[in-house]
Design brief:
Helix content: 25-40%
Radius of gyration: 30 Å
Strand order of the largest sheet: 1-2-3-4-5-6-7-11
Largest sheet: 8 strands, parallel, barrel
Structural class: alpha/beta
Number of helices: 22
């Protein structure tokens, strides 16, 4: 079973050491920039070089997280940073930003790229898209079941990586805007404030019905599912925990290493060690088993259930001065009369270190050297990471050299082997700049509308809206309302295979682009378009919607370097979370497709929960973005269209809102709504 890679977190030097000494096959770590755990200690470039050599000595690969969205002003810095990581000899970059991936492939064509779980890959189509882009591995979303993972593994050449242990998010990774919208700390930029771990009240039809940590899942643990993971074809098992202490890494990696190497039922003692290391009232494998609901949640406690305790073994492996993990080697030596001692140390994968002494062997006057004495000296490897499995010696009888000579040659051979094991070939570097393009300025600014139901669509048609995004189930109804309206099917945010009848599709994922490539495609904001390189990647689409996390200045910078047709969200409640494990059902309730439940936070803000197809739940913001009175700020950007998003609005509200925006575009005076009833989103603040 040990052919699966065991990939361990390294939030700092001590955790990296613990991971290596506990048997990890690879580690993933963050550098000083662009990593999704900005609050971890992380590594300087100098440390990355030093500890990459250390990892390579043990045959451990180093994956560096470059898994945040990149701003336009950071693209030049990204290039320099990627060059530095390449020079440091790292094996892999884990990437979220599609434009960053394209840029890295252009400047370092030999660099191995892994697609971050932040890319929200949930299907074979998504994997195929990324494989065609040059990604060799895809980290799947945590929400997939064993059957879904198996189907992907059996039908792709890309390596598939899955999370097997540690904290999981309530929202699909890469799609959470809750921390960003509510507090300006973006999960897509590595600064999530974890509002999901706070307590909320559940309101039903305006009345409080329950409370607790409604958005707080238990930690994942697939320690009992290792055999199935191997059988379905998973390449890499990933442990979460770059914010955890070294002892945690040691304990968890040690247990998983044990059962990967010696498959058996997990003992109560070992499960207790995992629980003692960190647990939110137990563990869950609900996504993997397809068993959702309350059992996956930690409604009573959002953090560790008790004080961490660790076994003595875990503590010892976490000791930065420990050197428990030994590298098996073979030693071959030759000592002939009139020639110096020669020693070769080598591993099973043909890596070797050679050393030759400076003194020739002489006839012994008193006590000649024998093989056992030489062997005893060569086995003194205690200050090295090596452990000799076999020694072969060819020694003439009746000769001698000083013992200190043997020791010196042994140390030199060991140092040569260490250098050989830690070295890596550096990938080619190509001088390149970000791709730039010039846009054609549109003649006028168009209003588009995204609707959830027929009532909202009627308001859009009544007010002469020419382009409407809608779920497939009401596309026919809208077409019957007017032949002058272009109806674009909004594909499901989390990709699944749908029968789409319209000629145009609003896509939220690379998977949908792959699936509906024969249709006219519009890119939704869920594509996380943060910079011109990503915009240019998606420019072949009919139109793209930029990320709502960008401010006006950042939007302007993107537009200066792309020729894509661009849309911005000018009205609507932004979806904060998209959840496979419906929080309402996990509380033992169901709203049966209606919108009667809301979560209320400590500030008395209320967040509606919308039921989507397949029981995918969306938590939407308590307030809508409103920009009608600031329409000139959007017009100056020379974008192609603004979008009005309708979620919980009734016909009368939709009708009024559309008229307000039409009036604003015509130069009419628009006053903002009542104070605290709306938000400007990130247009005037952005995220760090």
């Amino acid at each position: 079973m040990s052919n699966m890679e065991l990939l361990a977190p390294a939030g700092n030097i001590a955790a990296l050491h613990a991971a290596v000494q506990s048997g990890a096959d690879a580690v993933y770590l963050g550098g000083p920039k662009f990593n999704a755990r900005q609050s971890a200690d992380n590594f300087s470039i100098e440390d990355i070089k030093k500890y990459t050599d250390y990892c390579h000595l043990y045959g451990v690969d180093v994956h560096v997280t470059l898994n945040t969205l990149i701003k336009e002003k950071e693209l030049s810095s990204l290039i320099d940073y990627a060059y530095s990581l390449n020079d440091a000899g790292v094996d892999t970059l884990i990437v979220q930003d599609m434009g960053a991936a394209r840029l890295i492939k252009n400047i370092i064509p030999d660099m191995t790229l892994h697609a971050s779980t932040q890319m929200t890959v949930t299907s074979l189509e998504g994997v195929k898209y990324l494989e065609d882009m040059g990604f060799s591995r895809v980290v799947l979303a945590c929400e997939l079941s064993a059957g879904e993972i198996e189907y992907i593994c059996k039908n792709t050449n890309a390596e598939i990586e899955v999370f097997v242990h540690g904290a999981i998010c309530m929202c699909y990774s890469g799609q959470c805007l809750m921390s960003s919208i509510l507090g300006g700390r973006s999960g897509n930029r590595g600064r999530c404030a974890q509002p999901c771990r706070l307590s909320y009240d559940l309101f039903e039809n305006g009345k409080s019905t329950d409370s607790g940590y409604i958005l707080s899942p238990k930690d994942m643990a697939l320690i009992n599912d290792l055999r199935e993971l191997r059988n379905i074809g998973v390449s890499s098992l990933k442990i979460e925990g770059r914010l955890k202490r070294a002892e945690y890494v040691s304990a968890v990696v040690g247990i998983y290493r044990k059962y990967l190497d010696s498959p058996s039922l997990v003992s109560k003692r070992d499960m207790r060690e995992l629980t003692d290391a960190f647990s939110r009232t137990g563990f869950t494998n609900g996504y993997f088993k397809g068993e959702l609901g309350k059992a996956m949640m930690s409604h009573k406690n959002p953090s560790n259930a008790k004080v961490n305790t660790f076994s003595e073994d875990a503590k010892q492996r976490a000791d930065i001065n420990s050197n428990i993990r030994k590298i098996p080697i073979n030693i071959a030596g030759t000592l002939k009369y009139g020639t110096p001692l020669e020693i070769t140390m080598y591993t099973g994968d043909t890596k070797y270190g050679f050393a030759q002494g400076t003194l020739n062997a002489e006839k012994a006057i008193n006590k000649p050297l024998d093989k056992e004495r030489v062997k005893a000296q060569l086995l003194k490897l205690g200050d090295t990471p090596f452990e000799a499995e076999d020694i072969t010696l060819d020694i003439d009888e009746g000769i001698t050299v000083p013992i200190k000579e043997i020791n010196a040659v042994r140390r030199e051979a060991a140092a040569a082997l260490m250098l050989e094991l830690s070295s890596r070939e550096i990938g080619r570097k190509v001088k390149a700049k970000p791709q730039r393009a010039e846009r054609t300025v549109p003649d006028e600014l168009e209003i588009t509308v995204l609707v959830q139901n027929t009532e909202q669509a009627m308001a859009a048609v009544k007010n002469g809206i020419k382009l409407i995004y809608a779920p497939e189930k009401i596309v026919g109804d809208i077409k019957n309302m007017s032949s002058e309206v272009t109806v674009i099917t909004r594909a499901r945010t989390i990709f699944c295979d749908e029968e789409i009848t319209s000629d145009g599709v609003l896509v939220s994922s690379p998977a949908a682009i792959c699936k509906y490539s024969g249709k006219e495609l519009y890119g939704d904001f869920r594509l996380n378009i943060f910079n011109s390189q990503t915009a240019n990647h998606y420019a072949p689409l009919k139109r793209i919607t930029l990320s709502p996390e960008l401010n006006i200045s950042e939007i302007r910078s993107v537009l200066e370097n792309t020729d894509a047709d661009v849309e911005l969200i000018a009205y609507g409640r932004i979806p904060l979370m998209i959840m496979k494990n419906c929080p309402i059902k996990a509380m033992g309730k169901c709203q049966h497709g209606r919108t009667i439940y809301k979560l209320r936070d400590r500030k008395k803000e209320e967040f509606p929960i919308i039921c989507g197809d397949g029981c995918i739940a969306e938590l939407i913001n308590s307030k809508p973005i409103f920009m009608a009175d600031k329409i000139n700020d959007l017009k100056k950007l020379k974008i192609n269209s603004i979008r009005l998003i309708f979620t919980v609005e009734k016909f009368e509200q939709c009708d009024k809102i559309i008229n307000v925006y039409k009036s604003a575009l015509s130069g009419g005076e628009v006053l903002p709504p009542a104070e605290n009833s709306f938000t400007r989103g990130h247009y005037y603040r952005g995220v760090e």
